[in-house]
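Re-run with default settings, no changes from the original entry. Doing this only to confirm the output is reproducible before filing.
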Amino acid sequence: MGKIKTHKASAKRFSVTGTGKVKMFHSDHRHNLGNKTQKRKRHLRSSDILDSAMTANVRKLICK
């Protein structure tokens, strides 16, 4: 019987919390930061919980 491989690109971007939720970090925080407001950059810095509609898909990709 074959095994499902971990999607490595997704595994680097998402992690599963102890309660089973999927944690992610925001994009758009790498370059051109001089054009973005301080408030926008501050909110992009923190992590966030993935929407419940996408959680099942991502958990299959990262095999957790």
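The mean pLDDT is 94. The domain at 8-62 is CATH 4.10.410.60 (Factor Xa Inhibitor).
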